[in-house]
Design brief:
Helix content: 10-25%
Shape: elongated
Largest sheet: 8 strands, parallel, barrel
Strand content: 15-25%
Distance between the termini: 108 Å
Length: about 625
């Protein structure tokens, strides 16, 4: 690492310089604490007595270091920092967690742990060579909280699986269900289970709840061998206020400014920028993560996330610098923003005055869609364009459609529970909801439990309600989600050219009274028509226009018997009428069940030849005139 670049916020490899590193003479400890008067490294190797292990500052650099010859991987340590205080004659003494630690004790204990990151060698060269940002490939993300997807009965205290154990169970399930990526809620170290990792203490440290750094590497490697990408949530905006970690690390606000009971990173300090962008690079470089989903970007763009308080220019500069550097270092890694604002060019390249993300969560689509499905079917005609509005702005960014963990906690109800109506109607509409989601342009994300129709809100202390799959309704819904996932990842019309406006068009978006929507997804000759009926009435002869003579083959509908619906028997093929409809050359006439969605594949047929009218000679026309006159006179 170049120390000057660290100071000015340009370093991406600070973890190679700071922290605990193995050398031939012992372990080299190095920490940045410019306002400390004295620092000792304490740990198991010196019985937590740092008298003989005082760290030396290099000139006035703020960098303290020492080599401890008895320190070994697996040993615990802390930094004992002394700082003068005018209110305390003897000063203050603080035992601190290493900001650049690669390992830690299991909570509630807070010591850092020496880790050899070179102890594992990946075998995913083929995956790393072929991976991409997936703009024209399917991205179907299964969002997972590592501690509560399933509980480990062998761990009586916490129910946690270790990283590789979790991976071995997740991988076959994810492949069977048709997901392309797994996204883990933050795996950085954090003290409180209830924060789910979003209040972090160790930005270079995998949480020890589920094992070691080596075990996390092994898990990622397992996913890659099976062709599954791995994404991790990353929290670059705030961190825990606990005093053993970054908060007033050297006795001063070195990393932060404080508000609302948490500590926000001070992006106006170069050392903080280098710390954060080195952390993001660390997970990609050392652990081979395929994507980073950056949390709460709206709180970085605007002061306190409030646009009325103005843009945080320092934060924008940091985001641009970080993303620009990460794009150069890892051109095939996906950078994803969780941003609820309408700030422009979030997914535009930095060189075109954008923030440099590859994808942005479409929070507007998520809120509008879920609000719409809560409404009584009759009243949906008064909110008809709430469902179509997303396509008015969709091509402004590279959007990803999320039904995340945030939507199934804190009294918001689960996705299934949000649906209008009673038990059966909720399942019926949830199938329509997900059909709309998976056929709408944009990449996809679903939180664990959504796919089984969970009624209970997520609780990090309990596993998903897998026992629901003993009940027919949930079995049918689970089967539907599996088939919908596989349809999405197998048909290019639903993912190739997602961000090309030529690959989507509305066919019917004015049927307000009927509450029907029809649109087409296409990629080359691969065309699909999607029909949504958001009313509680069935339409037996619903007509809509089309500009080609074609036949529609039903591909998927939640109203089929195998998915808990009422339709059984062979799927009907629907041939276009040769007559037109409105401004369309041809038309289809279909039956649409109430509250249902149907996906059709389009097969183009040769246009039927026009039958010419017979040519009549003058004598024939004269005979016809005489006949008509006689009929009139009589």
């Amino acid at each position: 690492m170049n120390l000057h670049e660290f100071y000015i916020g340009k370093a991406f490899d600070a973890y190679e310089y700071f922290g605990a590193h193995l050398t031939k003479n012992g372990v080299l400890f190095r920490v940045y604490a410019p306002n400390a008067e004295k620092i000792e490294v304490i740990g198991e190797f010196n019985d937590w007595d740092g008298t003989e292990d005082e760290m030396i500052q290099d000139a006035q650099s703020g960098v303290f270091e020492c080599v401890q010859k008895d320190a070994k991987p697996g040993m615990m340590y802390k930094y004992r920092i002394s700082k003068h205080n005018i209110y305390q004659p003897d000063g203050i003494v603080m035992d601190r967690f290493d900001p650049y630690s690669f390992g830690s004790q299991v909570r509630p204990d807070t010591a850092s742990v020496i880790v050899d990151l070179e102890d594992y060698h990946f075998s995913d060269e083929a995956w790393m060579k072929k991976r991409s940002k997936n703009y024209d490939l399917p991205v179907n993300i299964y969002e997972v909280h590592a501690g509560s997807w399933r509980k480990n009965e062998a761990d009586e205290e916490n129910g946690w699986y270790h990283y590789q154990e979790l991976g071995k169970q997740l991988i076959p399930y994810v492949k069977e269900m048709g997901y392309t990526h797994v996204e883990f809620l933050p795996l950085t170290e954090h003290p409180a289970d209830c924060s789910w990792g979003y209040q972090a203490s160790g930005y270079f440290c995998p949480t020890s709840r589920y094992g070691t750094a080596k075990e996390l590497m092994e898990m990622v490697d397992l996913f890659h061998k099976e062709g599954i990408g791995v994404i991790m949530d990353f929290v670059p905006v705030h961190f825990i206020a606990d005093t053993y970690a970054l908060n007033k690390f050297d006795g001063t606000a070195l990393y932060e400014y404080s508000e609302w009971g948490t500590c926000n990173f001070n992006y106006y300090r170069g050392e903080v920028r280098s710390f954060l962008q080195s952390s993001a690079n660390f997970w990609m470089e050392k652990f081979h993560f395929d994507g980073i989903r950056m949390d709460a970007i709206s709180n970085a763009i605007y002061w306190q996330g409030d646009s009325s308080k103005g843009i945080n220019e320092g934060a924008l500069d940091f985001i641009k610098c970080m993303n620009s550097g990460l794009q150069k270092l890892h051109p095939s890694v996906m950078l994803i923003a969780e941003d609820s604002t309408n700030f422009q060019k979030v997914t535009a390249p930095v060189e075109y005055d954008g923030l440099g993300f590859d994808y942005k969560w479409d929070m507007g689509w998520m809120n509008d869609t879920l609000d719409y499905f809560r409404i009584h079917p009759y009243d949906r005609k008064f909110h008809y364009h709430k469902l179509s509005f997303s396509m008015m702005y969709f091509y402004n960014e590279h959007y990803l459609l999320p039904f995340s963990h945030d939507e199934v906690v804190h009294g918001k109800a689960t996705i299934l529970q949000k649906m209008w109506g009673e038990y059966d109607l909720k399942f019926q509409q949830a199938k329509t909801l997900y059909t709309y989601m998976y056929t709408h342009p944009g990449k996809k994300l679903n939180f664990m439990g959504n796919e089984i129709g969970q009624f209970r809100e997520w609780d990090e202390e309990k596993e998903c309600d897998w026992m629901l799959l003993d009940y027919p309704k949930h079995q049918d819904f689970h089967r539907f989600m599996k088939d919908l996932n596989h349809l999405y990842i197998s048909e290019p019309a639903f993912f190739n050219g997602d961000y090309n406006s030529a690959n989507f068009r509305w066919i019917e978006v004015e049927a307000v009274e009927e509450r029907v929507y029809i649109y087409e997804r296409m990629c080359g000759e691969n065309h699909f028509i999607v029909v949504l009926n958001m009313s509680d009435a069935q339409y037996n002869d619903f007509e809509f226009g089309y500009d080609h003579y074609a036949v529609l083959h039903e591909v998927l509908s939640g109203e089929r018997k195998e998915y808990g619906g009422y339709f059984e028997g062979p799927k009907e093929d629907i041939v276009a009428k040769t007559t037109g409809y409105k401004w369309w050359k041809r038309k289809f006439k279909i039956t649409i069940p109430a509250l249902a969605a149907i996906i059709y594949k389009v097969e183009f047929l040769p246009e039927p030849k026009e039958i010419p009218l017979p040519m009549l000679d003058e004598a024939s026309i004269d005979i016809d005139r005489k006949r008509l006159r006689a009929e009139h006179e009589n």
